[in-house]
Specification:
This protein is of the alpha+beta class and 745 residues long. 51% of the residues lie in helices and 15% in strands. The strands form 6 sheets. Strands 1-2-5-4-3 form a 5-stranded mixed beta sheet. A 4-stranded mixed beta sheet has the order 12-14-13-15. The protein binds manganese (II) ion. Manganese (II) ion binds next to loops.
């Protein structure tokens, strides 16, 4: 990261010059003063201690721009003082690069500045080491680490965001390549996090700076377009502003009215997304009315609509339906004089502060009544994300969930009783059901939207009234994972599916265990508890049920476990084992196909194992095992197309091999296309006879349906292995008149 002087920004000048020192001191004095003003109750002397320590540690280091390094931490601290943050936070800002860039340890920070500061500095240092601009799985892991650090203390991310803000403000001296990387990382991770924490002002500045860092020409182009309209726009808007102020005063609505132009990055996104010229951006110009109460906000909206007609579909009530990040405001776009449209945002003073500062505003008024609970809400969001991330094995999936959660274009729908529910865009009735309650989600069998039955994958629209049809005892379907949008729904569905599969596996595993126990004449009702405890410990499991589950999944085999309870039988068994042929005899319980299989899982005996029906592998073919849920190990041919689909869950893949046995045969289905003439069938059977194979079934028909003049012969034949099959096939192909042979399974 660009703030690390070691690899990017350091130039060592041995003696700092006096004028520089003086400028540093001036900068710090300004910081100290504003802090003392904002937080008169805190011990401002501590700030100087932290400053002097940081200054002395960074002495001789300078930034790429050439100025002394210490200017950077002071600037970061100033950003946080301007957000009205507390002493610990500002101390952390001053010290945030000390551990990374000098030889100082966290322990030393703790000794000098206390535990809280040490924790925060440690958090910021760790965040700095995270590689965000990387492959998806690494990125997911990085984001998880960031979230963990944030949950530890929200001030960590506030310092980090301010650090990033200052780095972007001074990014000009870095190489093009670094600017692009830092800009992209900001747009991908930091700006969305600022947004999710409700910090509108920081997010806006991060985005605009990052935009400039990534695409300077694009930004210049947008700025030129805005500039072109600026003068006329502002004149127009100021006229409106006066008129609005008068009208509000006449209605005795106290209000502050501000004009604003949409910021460059928002304009850019809008032009790109909607593919429209700048003339059609309705909210390029905006008027902001900040009033004192809810009632007066709605009153002001009435005043505006009374004067200028609202543009249909552009009125948004984020007061009644706050955005997920807590943002509240009334938005409307109206048609002004001369057909010039503009946007009006109306909010209270408190809503305004929250929109600008988000979680930082809560911190500021922490002593006050509301602060804590809303901050908790942000922290809870992060905790949930971390939990989900741990459960989602697929990093790509996590990143996309995260993006849905962070960017969350939202859809507002209603319960039948009129309660508003905010969901990510394209959410479905299933997401809605899980939002209401997990039990409602699990039991969901159908849904009505605006009184009409819809499919469960219906994508909800703003204003839909959603009703969930439930049936007690119903279980969620795996298919739902294909369309749900919210992490909550996804997570709950997976939990249930895993739990059901586990209980199935336990059932199968227990039967298998009992059966094996009977074979070995071990009574499982009298298992020695001491031995059981030892066995569980050895396998890293906590109860007998876990053993059953693992047996059912095919991850463990029953015999070695049972042997532990009857060591005196171990020898007997060994002898028997030698007598038996090397192939593995699987219990009959699961599938007929399981019997007398010449297959084994590498390194294990007695695992539930069967040949997959789809590809019907035979000895000699390259195979791979897949641990099914509750049915043991399915063995597929490596060339089976299902394998590609299944193997995305890498941890369920298992090595299997053909056991050495000569006694078995396998059925293979082949289909021969041939000339339709007498004597063909006799020649086929002759080939099979001479190759020592049997025909299990045979069916011949004309191939008119394929538009041919020949015949198709379907045969099920018995083969020992791949080699024999190949011999038979090539012998069949040599018969004159045979056009094509296909193996069906
Ligand atoms: Mn820094």
């Amino acid at each position: 990261m660009e703030s690390k002087p070691k690899n990017t920004a350091t130039r060592v000048s041995p003696v700092p010059d006096a004028s520089d020192l003086n400028a540093v001191e001036q900068r710090f004095l300004a910081l100290e003063q504003s802090f003392a003003l904002n937080r008169p109750k805190e011990d401002v002397a501590k700030l100087r201690t932290a400053f002097e320590f940081a200054r002395d540690q960074h002495v001789g280091q300078s930034r790429r721009s050439g100025e002394s390094y210490i200017f950077h931490p002071i600037a970061v601290a100033q950003i946080l003082v301007d957000m009205n943050m507390d002493l610990v936070c500002v101390e952390t800002a001053l010290l945030h690069d000390v551990v990374e860039d000098t030889g100082i340890t966290i322990e030393e920070i703790r000794k000098r500045f206390g535990n809280e500061v040490a924790i925060c500095v440690d958090g910021v240092t760790k965040l700095g080491k995270i590689q965000l601009y990387s492959r998806e799985e690494q990125q997911a892991e990085s984001v998880r680490k960031m979230l963990l650090a944030m949950v530890g203390d929200i001030r960590v991310i506030l310092v980090k965001l301010s650090d990033r803000l200052h780095n972007l403000r001074t990014i000009g001296s870095l190489s093009r390549e670094k600017q692009t990387r830092i800009g992209q990382e900001t747009l991908d991770i930091y700006a969305p996090i600022a947004h999710r924490l409700g910090m509108g002002k920081v997010r806006a500045e991060l985005e605009d700076l990052a935009f400039g860092a990534i695409d300077p020409e694009g930004q210049a182009d947008i700025l030129a377009q805005i500039e072109h309209k600026r003068k006329a726009s502002l004149e127009f808007l100021e006229g409106i502003q006066k008129s609005v102020e008068q009208k509000l005063a006449r209605e005795s609505i106290p209000a502050r009215v501000e004009c604003r132009l949409k910021r460059p990055y928002s304009v850019y996104l809008k032009l790109k997304k909607q593919k429209i010229p700048i003339e059609q951006v309705y909210d390029l110009l905006a008027l902001r009315i900040i009033s004192d109460s809810l009632k007066n906000c709605y009153g002001a909206l009435g005043v505006i609509h009374n004067e200028w007609p609202p543009i249909p579909g552009r009125i948004k009530d984020f007061i009644a339906m706050p955005r997920q990040n807590g943002y509240q405001s009334l938005h409307t776009s109206v048609m002004g004089p001369g057909g010039q449209a503009f946007e009006v945002q109306i909010r209270t003073e408190e809503m305004h502060r929250l929109a600008e500062e988000g979680v930082a505003a809560h911190w500021k008024y922490k002593e006050g009544r509301k602060g804590k609970s809303t901050e908790e809400q942000y922290v809870n969001w992060m905790r949930q994300l971390i939990e989900w991330q741990q459960e989602m094995r697929d990093p790509g999936e996590f990143m996309s969930t995260l993006k849905v959660d962070l960017y969350s274009d939202e859809v507002y729908v209603f319960t039948p009783k009129g309660k508003v529910v905010v969901l990510p865009r394209d959410s479905t009735p299933v997401d809605f059901a899980y939002y209401i309650h997990s039990d409602v989600g699990n039991a969901c069998v159908g849904s009505k939207v605006n009184n009409r039955i819809v499919q469960l994958k219906y994508s909800l629209k703003n204003g839909d009234v959603v009703e969930v049809l439930t049936q007690p005892g119903h279980m969620p379907s795996k298919d739902w994972l294909g369309f749900v949008k919210t992490s909550k729904a996804r997570n709950k569905i997976k939990q249930i599916i895993n739990a059901t599969e586990r209980s199935k596996s336990i059932e199968i595993g227990e039967k298998y265990f009992e059966k094996e126990a009977r074979r070995l004449s071990i009574s499982i009702s009298k298992l020695d508890e001491g031995i059981l405890a030892q066995v569980l410990e050895d396998y890293g499991l906590s109860k007998l049920e876990d053993i059953f589950a693992n047996l059912g999944y095919g991850k463990l085999e029953a015999r070695p476990i049972l042997m532990r309870f009857a060591p005196e039988r171990a020898h007997e068994e060994e002898v028997k084992e030698e007598l038996a042929h090397a192939a593995i005899v699987a219990p009959e319980a699961v599938d007929k196909n399981l019997k007398n299989l010449a297959l084994r899982v590498k390194g294990m005996n007695d695992v539930l194992i069967y040949r997959a029906i789809c590809c019907n592998p035979i000895p000699g073919e390259a195979i791979v095992g897949y641990i099914t849920r509750g049915k043991g190990v399915a063995v597929h041919s490596l060339s089976c197309s299902n394998v590609q689909n299944l193997m995305y869950e890498v941890e369920r893949k298992i090595d299997v091999e053909w056991a050495k046995t000569g006694v078995e045969s396998f059925d293979v289905q082949i289909s021969i296309t041939t000339d339709d003439r007498p004597g063909m069938l006799a020649q086929f059977t002759q080939v099979l006879f001479s190759e020592n194979s049997n025909i299990r079934s045979l069916e011949a028909r004309g191939d008119e349906e394929r538009g041919g003049d020949g015949a198709v012969v379907d045969m099920k034949i018995e083969v020992r292995d791949k080699r024999q099959l190949e011999k038979i096939l090539s012998a069949l192909r040599r018969i004159p008149g045979v056009r094509d042979i296909e193996r069906k399974s």
